[in-house]
Protein 1
Amino acid sequence: MKRCLNEMKLSFPARGENEAFARACVSAFIAQLDPYVSELAELKTAVSEAVTNAIVHGYRGRRDGIITMQVRLCSDRRVYIRIRDKGCGIADITQAMQPLFTTAPEEERAGLGFSVMESFTDSLRVKSSRGRGTSLVMEKTLRERSGDESVKDGVSNKSGRKSGTGSPLR
Amino acid sequence: MPVTVSLDGSVLTARLSGDIDHFTAADMRSEIDRAITMNPVSELILDFSAVNFMDSSGIGLVMGRSKLMSELGGKCSVCDPPAYIVKVMKLSGIDKLCPITGEGGVRL
Ligand SMILES: Nc1ncnc2c1ncn2[C@@H]1O[C@H](COP(=O)(O)OP(=O)(O)O)[C@@H](O)[C@H]1O
Ligand SMILES: [Mg+2]
């Protein structure tokens, strides 16, 4: 394991407003490693999925539940993110991680949160126990920066968006 | 405004903007559904050109509207999403139910 360059820990209540807050925090912190736009978007999406799950499923709308998020930046450009809740826990993790599986179809949940987290990070580990809560660890190694962003990150089009992205979906 | 709707004949365009997550999707959904039920709509176009961020809550939003339109005997499509959002959508296979088009109407 490589040296830890920087670390942060944050806790906030399980409110929908904090989904955007958590994404913004992670994004601002990870900026220290100068990630590609696509990598930043992927990590923000993975964090959004994890925090949303804690709010929607873990605490089931109990707005006083506490979510903690820890982020570490390592010297080998690895980003480590842990997100925990002390909510209801997951009865069957294997089943929960199946694409399209959801326990909340009436709320238009797509059942794809875990699929998104897996696709947009290098590894995802889930620990959970019923009645005690859930802990997720996601890791992603950012690519080395080369001088010319357009070489690796896709050429940006007129509207300033990136038209090619990094890791293809698995 | 996170959603602006405009009606051209029976074609309803809903222009979404900002971030689509679990928190913001609920209002977007009711805004679009209200416009669909108040007007005779045969086609719904979800304009994603001003969307900055979307997680799987956005997939739920598109799937739900697509289902609603097919129940009404109409159709639904997504236009101009940023590249990274196309990736999120394709992960779900939603593009098979609801075509995604880019600049100049090219199918993505
Ligand atoms: N933090 C959590 N606490 C309790 N249950 C969870 C948690 N995260 C996920 N789950 C369970 O796993 C299922 C699948 O999660 P996910 O893939 O994100 O899909 P969705 O959120 O659309 O239901 C959820 O429907 C829920 O039952
Ligand atoms: Mg989810």
Protein 2
Amino acid sequence: MSKAIIDIEHLVKRYEMGDEEVYALRDVSLTIGDNEYVAIMGPSGSGKSTLMNILGCLDTPTSGKYLFNGANVAEMDDDDLASIRNREIGFVFQTFNLLPRATSLKNVELPLVYAGVSAEERTRRASEALARVQLADRMSHKPNELSGGQRQRVAIARAIVTAPCIILADEPTGNLDTKTGQDIMSLFSDLWKAGNTVILVTHEEDVAQHARRIIRLRDGKIESDTQNHHA
Amino acid sequence: MPRLSELQESFRIAVDSLRVNLLRSILTTAGIVVGVVLVVLMGWTIGGLNAVWEQTISIIGKDMLYMDKWDWAGGGNWRELEARKDITLNQAEMLKLRMESAQFVIPMARKWGGSVVKGNTSLSCSITGTTSDYGFTSAAATLDGRFFTTTEEHSAERVVVIGHGVYTSLWPDGNAVDAILKINRVPFRVIGVLQKQGFLFMDFIDNQVFIPLKAFRAAHGFYDRSFDVALKCGSEAMLDVVRTEAIGHMRAIRNVAPDAPNDFSINETKAFDEQTKNIRLGIWVVGIGLTLLAFVVGSIGIMNIMYVSVTERTKEIGIRKAIGARRSSILAQFLIESALLCAAGALIAFPIAQAIVAGARFTAVDVLEQDWARVISPFIPLDLLVIAVTVSVIVGLLAGFMPALRASRLDPVDALRYEQ
Ligand SMILES: Nc1ncnc2c1ncn2[C@@H]1O[C@H](COP(=O)(O)OP(=O)(O)O)[C@@H](O)[C@H]1O
Ligand SMILES: [Mg+2]
């Protein structure tokens, strides 16, 4: 297997709700290498989003070790994590999470703003990213002027604009109809073929079948981790 | 530190956010607007007061020293001053003979609580007997007529030069020159009317009349009277030279022992500065108090609205954090918004304050015809605008700090999950 981008060992995430303790993840260990295409599956509440958020450095585990590109995430401060989210990770959400008052171009430029890229360079790279998701003609549209599929493609353009080493997508087709969902999935396949590492969460079997490796979670534990030979 | 691109983005977001919530933004700045209006009005009032004061001082004469038994500034103990020997006319005349650096040395005999009668109307005012030299001081500038001459002085002519206050009280319709004014039942002919000298709280100094020294002696006598000696120095630069020379001569004339303190005072218009200082201080204290109150109330409003803004935009904060905004960027974003909100308040306040100022001056000068108010500027000085905006921005940064800090510390996952 190629060099590990993600290496987690004995990951635990516990939530405290009053007196009650909820374990979202119990002892998860896993390694994901460069240019893998992974689907994380499992029933609702099995800990998929929690795992994604930790992988995406949005959240921190209660215990366990997480090495991102060999660096120990537990030792990073808030700004280091922000910088990793900015440069190394592209996040795609089920509900798109675009800024409603900004145009597609501005939305896609946003990560570059936080990376300190000049205005001119931002526009150039954001336009390129939008062209890659076939939205070159929708650059000055605002989210409410776009269809769901188009919005998700803007979100994907935003995720790839900083040329991150992994793309994380939490149920990216969850709010889309089947046809549009397939278009989005083929976009992820293209990104994977172009050399990106793609990790996506889904509870739909046919969506998961696009991936080369399927990890199944149940009650916060890995139930199975298999290569997918159908794709 | 946030990068330039982040600051620009923050600025854009802030402007956008203020625009979207325009009405709400304007309403929240009300406290700041009031605060800024008060600051500006206070600054303008003090500036105006200074201008009026400067006017009074320059009319009375900045180049004048007054040698007197009494101390204008109220320095020293009253009993000590009372115990001083009177300054006699003889001493004043000896001083005049010896002084070299002064342009004019002018003996003056004063009766403070005197009264003058025109027809059946009597008016209390100060009565001063002096020499024709007084006519060369700036305080003797006349509105109408002239000061008395050396000839009139020597022949103890019954002529009187009246102060502006006496003039307006007794001759409301004008034409005082050549009229008759009785001083101690003796009729005097009015030959001149002095220009207005005192403004606002200094008004009382216009209640005065001047007559030749010898005529004064005839009317009130010189017995038991301490003379003043006015010294015209020619320029402010000469004040020190003249003062030193005059003190030396006067000590010799009055036989003051070498180690004893002066048994007379040298007064100058500067002495009044102390009094105006207190008035200015009073305005500052009241003004600053009201302003602080307005800013405190204003900043509570700003803080509140910023908390609302942070809550409303929790999701947006989550999105920004998810794609790499650092704490400092989010902090800057909300601080800039809050500072802009307050700066906008200052900019709204400015035309309001300007309108009040212009209205006040128009009322004083054009409606109430108070000529002295002409020296007060009808415009708010630019530096007050700069101060007002700066203060508002600082208030904005302070008021926005807690909400901005809360925003910057939001947990990205929680923020993303937030739905309105
Ligand atoms: N912030 C939270 N506070 C308390 N419990 C949480 C929180 N987030 C997730 N959980 C719990 O953790 C478990 C896993 O949630 P999640 O990762 O969202 O599951 P999935 O995405 O697989 O549906 C669930 O039982 C959920 O209720
Ligand atoms: Mg989920």
Protein 3
Amino acid sequence: MADGKILTINMGPHHPATHGVLRLVLELDGETIVKVTPHIGHLHRGIEKLAENMNYQQVIPLTDRFDYTAASLNNLGYCTAVEKLLGIEVPKRAQYIRVIMSELARIMGHHLWIGSHALDIGAMTVVFYAFRDREMIMNMVEEVSGYRLTPSYMRVGGLARDITPEFIKCLREFIKWFPTAVAGYNTLLTDNIIWRKRTMDIGVISAEEAVNYGLTGPSLRGSGVPYDLRKVKPYSSYDDFDFKVPVGAKGDVYDRYLVRMEEFIQSLNIIEQALENLPEGPVNVDNPLIFNPQIDDVQKDISALIRRFKIQCQGPVIPEGEIYHAVEGSKGELGFYLVGDGSESPYRMKVRSPCFILVSALEKLMLGHMIADAIAIIGSIDIVLGEIDR
Amino acid sequence: MVTLTIDGKEVTVPQGTTILEAARSVDIRIPTLCYHDRLNPIGSCRMCVVEIEGYTHPMAACTTPVDDGIEVVTSSERLTRIRQDSLKLILVNHPLDCPVCDKGGECLLQDLTFEFGIDQLEYQAAKVERDSQYASPLIRYWPDRCIMCLRCVTACQEIKGIGAISIAGDGYGAQVVTVDADKCQSCGECLQVCPTGALTEDLSRYKGRTWLIERVPTTCTYCGCGCQLELNVQNDRIIAVTTKDGVGINKGSLCVKGRFGYEFVNSDERLTKPLIKRDGKFEEASWDEALDLVAEKFSAIKGEYGPGAIGGLTSARCTNEENYLFQKFMRAAIGTNNVDHCARL
Ligand code: SF4
Ligand code: SF4
Ligand code: SF4
Ligand code: FES
């Protein structure tokens, strides 16, 4: 800079603490941050465009790759959006299983957040415990879907298949175990003096500013706004469950931390209720235009064969219309804007990515803080670049 | 002129128009199966039924002419049921062939079955194994897949004026048969209009899937008619030739050469390098070598006997541009007017 006092440094995209390929250009006055310019797009895969050339079911694996730390939530957002466009509702059992998978995904997302957030600030132990427990969920996800990170387990119209007894067994064990695990994370961090010093009064954003910036999810709730789509606009039977929406008071890094820590427990709560009240029945809608017929029928009935052929090869046809539908992702309001043109592929799919909006508030959060706090702040808004860049 | 209403829309069309045509003129879609734009209405499938105010029975839109003041309804629960029933009857003895059927993916029967949400047949018929001979070895007839729509027979009669095929038998035993194999020109008109996989092109059998191929529109190179066709390309190989109805001078028709004569394109026997005869034997050479040799020989002949000793014959299978260049070369480079063309022969 001209006066020689401002130092411009480049952070990322290959920086372990930017949570992906985020690049920040930081301008420093001594150690104080005076300007932050995020550069995004390093992970752009053109997913929204790709979707225009695929049928509606084929888009599901693409959605896994938004916020891949909590992929089932993206599946849920997408599938429920298409279903809304179609005007169908999946059976109760499918809705409950979707809730279980989504909340497991939320826990997985938070695991990655707590692990790396603590690691970034210098507390190494947490990541090992977080990943130990995350592994349990991964195994369960693998059990039902065949994949660990990117399950693509949901379908427009239901689920790929029903859950297995083995899954239920593992889930019961997990429910029993997990409160102890969360207590363990708390012991490591919540009252830890270094942790508190590094996070309290850092990256403060008031409720009003947070709303104005368009923040959602735990980052908004950390500032005390109890906005959670599961409560505000329930979908997939979320109104059947009893759970609390934790909020912070001040809106600093520590508050956002507390909110997510409580969400671990609330998600577990929801999972437990869903599992105990899991209705019997099919997991897919009975609609000849959307869902595959039974394989036995396909082998003896030409109309079922044709149906399967069309659904597999061409994909279900979605009527003309547009829809915006959002779910509470692990990072915030994950919205899908879909335009159907009466064909088997979306005419347009636009994703409202919570992380994209979170990243726009980075400068507001960082200004005036020390360079070392930048890391704590990035971790506290829990961004994932797969979703920002898409 | 006659004025009627279709689904509440007022339509004015000339006397003699069918209800189907009247509906299409105002973008109202009536599902059809046996109806084909290039053929006179056949009226065999009952998919196009519509209700007319005051008539107890639904009427086939493709065969019923308009009348002044009638009120037509093109979709209702009753009509959907009738259409579904017609489809179910067609499907009763249809084989489970879609996975191996060349038409799978662009089959009108599949489309309608799917559209009308038919997911279970309440009745089944005993399967009869049938063997069949078709008029031409280039076309394969699958009697089990045939839905007896009569498009093929009508096309052979009306478009080609040949009448090589007809329907024989009745009930489930009915099938398309050859009445005069000698008359058949293997033009594939029947193939083109068949809405299902009952008539398939035998050279391309099992080679590709409609959603995997790319259809490249081009002009037939066989003769000066210049028919429009589409090369069906999969993995850089032509696996079939199709046409679009109503496109080009041929409007969807082709002759046997245009429709079936494509295998030479990827033939292993095609020359890919120039050959030069040395000591009575052909040897592979580079283009530079070959062109040098030809130029040298041309110059020698021209030098010894004059340009009039050289003549050029070009081909109707070349494009206009190529033919233009050829004559230009003969006149300007060689200096002779001895240029001719096979189409004059
Ligand atoms: S004709 Fe159509 S419905 Fe019949 S087997 Fe072929 S693709 Fe399937
Ligand atoms: S062969 Fe094809 S066009 Fe001919 S009657 Fe059968 S289905 Fe119709
Ligand atoms: S399809 Fe037959 S008539 Fe048409 S251009 Fe080719 S050779 Fe000529
Ligand atoms: S289209 Fe009218 S009867 Fe077949």
Protein 4
Amino acid sequence: MSTVEVPPTKHVGQSLRRKEDPRLITGRATYVDDLALPGMLHAAVVRSPEAHARVVAIDASAALARPGIKAVYTGEDMSDLLAPLPMAWAPPGVEIKTPERWPLVRGHVRHMGDAVALVIGDDKYVVVDAAADVEVEYESLPVVIDVEQALKDEVLVHASLGTNKTHEWSMGGGGDIEQALAASDVVVQRRIVNHRTAGAAMEPRGCIAEYRAGALTVWSSTQVPHLLRLFYAVQMGISEDKVRVIAPEVGGGFGGKLQVCAEETMCAWASRKLGRPVKWIETRSENMAVSHHGRDQVDYVRMGATADGKITAFHAKIIQDLGAYFGLLTPMIPELGAFVMTGCYAIPVVQTDIVGVLTNKFFTDAIRGAGRPEMTHMLEVMIDQLAEELGIDPIELRRRNFIAPEQFPYETPYGITYDSGNYEAALDRALEIVDMEAFRAEQADLRSRGVLRGIGFSTYTEICGLAPSRAVGPSGFGLGIGLYESALVRVHPTGSVTVYTGASPHGQGHETGFAQIVADRVGTDPSVVEIVHGDTATGPMGLGTYGSRSLSVGGVAVAHAAEKIAQKAREIVAHNLEADPADIEVRDGRFSLKGDPDQGMTLAEVAGCAYVDATKMPEGMELGLEQALIYDPSNFVFPFGTHVCVVDVDPETGKVEVVRWVAVDDCGPAVNPMLIDGQVHGGIVHGIGQAIYEQVVYDERGQLVTGTFVDYALPTTMEVPSFETDRTETKSPSNSLGVKGIGEAGTIAATPAIVNAVIDALRHEGISFIDMPLTPLRVWQALEQARGDGNGPRDSEQGASLPAQGEGSAGSGPTIPEGGRS
Amino acid sequence: MIGAEFDYAVAESVDDAIALLAEGGEDAKLLAGGHSLVPLMKLRFAAPSLLVDLRRVDELRGIQTGGDSFRIGALTRHAELQARADMGLVAAVATQIADQQVRNRGTIGGSLAHGDAAADLPAVLLACDGSVVVRGPDGEREIAAADLFEGYLTTTVAHGEVLTEVRLPALTGYGYGYEKFNRRAEDWAMVGVSALVKSDGGVCQDVRIGLTHMGATPLRASAAEDALRGQPLDAEHIAAAAALAADATSPLGDLNATPEYKQHLARVLTRRALTTASAA
Ligand SMILES: Cc1cc2nc3c(=O)[nH]c(=O)nc-3n(C[C@H](O)[C@H](O)[C@H](O)COP(=O)(O)OP(=O)(O)OC[C@H]3O[C@@H](n4cnc5c(N)ncnc54)[C@H](O)[C@@H]3O)c2cc1C
């Protein structure tokens, strides 16, 4: 597109209010559960109360005897499915043992909540009652929950695989890691636990599947409608053209809906079997138990450096807790993090060794950041550990190792090329806002009055904008498909515009940002640019929304299509003004002659030529004003920035409170600063959640202890400060908008800033390391331990100890019953 | 999150409710604010056969102030208590129950009859030496706070009885303090401590300390009370008394706390609550 000059911007860069908000905040939006079809049946799933067992017998007679129950199906009934649920990563040269996952189990359950039977009936109440009537006889099998225990293979999650270790994946760069560490003046090492979290989208999953007249339509609360179409076609043996997937309003995903869900395949299958639409809406209890979890790694990390603070080597051994099966992307999550193992730093020698291990828990998969928060956590926490070891200020240590602005494009030891960056500038801006001198004075003053205040930094970069198709596809990184994106821009005869995007937003605000991009290019107002998404029957093939890809891939596709429209419009205008197309520009909402802006045409007038009065079209030019294209990015994008967290720790109770947050992010030129703030705010809250509040906990029998929002403690507005956000703008040379992603950056940056802040607050107490989540109990225990022996432990083994179990529930409210029925 | 099937009836009066409960049999249950019962039903921990809704029973509403005591109708919502500055500790505690939506629905009668170990108001009733009035097929009786709470989620309000009124002494001249410790502002208490202190020239004349979530029922920190009564209300004596706050408690551990941690919290929070109460 380099031939097309980027028009002067007007709407891009403005904090335009979100076009989607009026319908969302007045209850006019349509989610899956708002839809009803004539003759629709309802589904409920019978789930295993056991974490590991053989299914001896299933007796559905009582359930079937209930009035209104149409059918009860088991795994064997669905043996005509042509393929198990997919795992879409087959890296060339790596052997992966993939456990088969069918929508309903066939003989064994392997985690609490595993799906044993499907109950179909007339209304949503009767199916839940009937599901409780289904008698399942289980023969209990031993359970393995701890990932390092599972590595010993004493209890096998899938006996047929012969081991719990599904794969090993190693990547090294820059030289021999052991030599580099041995040659370092100092080496710091830690065992860091990055615990399991839940996505917890506001709208749980759900679908309606309707098989009628040989064609399947599925309404799904999904981030990836086109991928679902592909997989339904494969699983059910239906020609892809006969499958349509619609994502109506989707109330959040966070990666949890980047999944091919067992329940949706069940409904599609049952609809074909029964000839009626089938609806399934996930309950919150199911959402906590069987919507995929995230994170869950044990990391052994070593960082080497010279005495004057040059990092020489960084090694991570990652033990990934996969859970009992693979979801769509499960085994590749840590690998995604490995790609930014060097973060913002010029680290010459790196190595990542990943081991995937099965346990009797629900599977983990991509949750906001997917691998990159874990890796950034290790790196940024270790920088502070190294700073303490060397006696160098952690900010200064970061500066000494930053990749300098003139080094871009910068190739890391892993052969990844960072597009652009100016890490010092973002750090400097953050320090202007924070004022470290004033902070240290305040900290000392507060400490003398018994308040332990600490500050923590995280200077991050991450890899997003998924993704250049050649690099990530089957012959590259090994994904089952390339990650290009499509756009179709259609100008209507009256000059208003409909844009079809393959991105599939679920709260981000694409309808606003994409409209701004298009409006500027075709000389109209964003209010008459409608963005259509999430329906496989409307636009071209699309890949969906995840991996902070929508703007830098989908948005760029839209921009390119709009620019092609603008080029055609220029030619039409030039023809009518008897001018040279090169002299036509978009200005003040119309196409006008350079130097003589009174001469020109509006988009509506151009559309009039293209659709209504063909005599006004240049000779030989096709009628109409419409452009479809697919854009494949040439590289990933690498946003970066500095996050600063200030915490207060109660020295008596161990309670941590975040009292200040400064975030300076750089995601290139802002299309809509308000949308960026929204993503950053949410991203930070997500990180605060993991660092202090949230944890998915299973007991040793594999029972989920945190089955409700009473026990799975999502932070609320009361737990977070008002965020101070700012930006620097460094263009990405990889796309014509210069933009980078921002959807995950806050989450990727946040957790180490919090841990570093807490350690800063507690270091004088003898605490130099502590694992997440920084619950009051855990911090108090660390304080007790430190106070117990004069110097305090250099290594408190916080990460290893889970809270003792007693009553189970944290409050007294409802907790999940054994077996976790909803 | 769909409960089991149940029947539903709306009572027009307390006597009507008693009659409906009697007809409904042993699985009939009263419904007040529904913010403890309905979540349990949705998770199928509770599956009553009949719900007798109290919402139209106006005789259960309203707060009467009579000289040295308050008589609080069982249907009084937490939000109403929250707004009553004249009710001191009770208002301060009500403000910290859950979030405003819950406070707009939950009732004092429901909270006390439910007997949740982590609920805020039971320990206040106990610290105040208040009582409740219940009416059943056999007539009316008054139950002292000390006799109300029996065990985890069980009270001595018998099946078939309606808790009609809560009686609290006004405790004029007492300073008060409430320390609720939780992870998030809207959570139930990991531990809560309510303290009432009557001071005479800086000397403790009387003190009551109620402990929340330190056992299956609310508790009084008697050893700490005894240690402070008659002593100067200075930091040293308060700390010495607070150090005894967890004596004779044996809390269970849970997801968020070990028994030792809870006992530690009880001591810290008692010191803080006593300090606030003494300063008032
Ligand atoms: C998200 C959430 C957070 C909460 N957090 C807190 C908290 O921090 N602190 C706290 O104290 N509480 C908390 N609660 C509980 C809330 O305060 C409840 O509303 C209250 O405890 C019960 O009152 P209710 O009127 O809702 O009772 P209901 O739920 O209607 O009834 C509870 C039980 O009491 C019985 N009952 C009700 N009224 C009577 C009566 N008059 N006579 C005899 N029996 C009766 C019912 O049959 C039932 O068994 C929370 C609730 C929720 C949903």
